[in-house]
Design goal:
The structure is a homotrimer. Chain A is α+β, with helices and mostly antiparallel strands. Chain A has a single domain, classed as RutC-like (60s Ribosomal Protein L30, Chain: A). In chain A, 33% of the residues lie in helices and 28% in strands. A six-stranded mixed beta sheet of chain A has the order 1-2-3-6-4-5, with helices on one face. The longest helix of chain A has 19 residues. Chain A starts with a helix and ends with a strand.
Chain lengths: 136, 136, 136
């Protein structure tokens, strides 16, 4: 019981201090963080193309997956440990074009749960956005 | 071995009794729960405006974030511990208007992973919906 | 200390061996897995209708929920332990039709956090897609 109280007190102290030692953010910004790590998992922001903005779905998907690789690496994990992937395409008719890049990127047999739907993205230059969660 | 068997037996008993002691729901309804707590995390339902239904994105975003604050508080956590946020706007051209409210609400450097896309919501009066997951 | 080092070494060995003993996939495919289990939770892929493809939202929702039941069963859990559900309807005017099937399927008081929005799906024959995460 005393142990439990101490544990709770410690937890409250940690949290009110603002330290949040159990949360680690990668590139935290004023609006969102690139990723946030919590108890064995890393949660990535939805990624869109930067240098290939406005170009083909093929190019944008390749760049987005490259960004995801880089962030997963910073978190100490990799694409074979992705749990979920949410993919938004601004035009669902590009489904096959996106998949060609995706299929070449994932490791067969070590693929995540995935859902892909159509949605307009933050700017018309963006044709694909991908948000993933991975195990560390 | 005996210990493991006992543990499994206990787990099965707990689950078949319907108690689900490891799951705590906030305002469980017949269709969905306002939130559900499981092992160190809370999962909130997608929130839409209630009293500001039909009004501006600015007003609806403010109300939705207020609702999220209230639910996070019930779960014993707060906005600095949000892991992921999914935002749907019925009109993506209101992206900046939503962000003005969002940016004033989040705590710089303690922001979550986020993705925002356009989608028609359950009723045309709803202009923004936000679904978050947070660490306890 | 020695114990910790051993633990780390073991973890690295496990991961570099490709075994990923902490990840269990259900029906892993070259593009995605039907579901993936990690530390007390199961993450399901977005499910669409198969045999009722092209038919009513009512029929497709019933089939999708049946598929979800089957996958949750394989993971050793059930619908009363769903944490989150994301539902996409290709036409949001079918919201009530989908809900009629959903409401009859969930167990009152044991419902998940949920969000439903409109989105075009991978093929026009698909009218509803549902992606869930559940506690084991």
């Amino acid at each position: 019981m005393a142990k439990t109280k101490k544990k709770v007190a410690k937890k409250v102290a940690r949290r009110s201090s603002g330290a949040s030692k159990d949360l680690t953010r990668i590139d935290p910004g004023p609006r969102m963080s690139d990723a946030i790590i919590h108890e064995g998992r890393v949660f990535l922001a939805g990624k869109v193309a930067d240098r290939s903005k406005g170009r083909s779905v093929r190019e944008q998907t390749a760049e987005v997956l490259e960004q995801i690789d880089a962030t997963l690496k910073k978190a100490g994990t990799d694409k074979t440990r992705i749990l979920t992937a949410n993919i938004w395409l601004s035009d669902i008719s590009t489904f096959s074009e996106m998949n060609a890049v995706w299929d070449a990127w994932v490791v067969p047999g070590r693929t995540p749960a995935r859902a892909t739907v159509e949605a307009k993205l933050a700017a018309p230059e963006y044709k694909v956005e991908i948000m993933v969660t991975a195990a560390l």
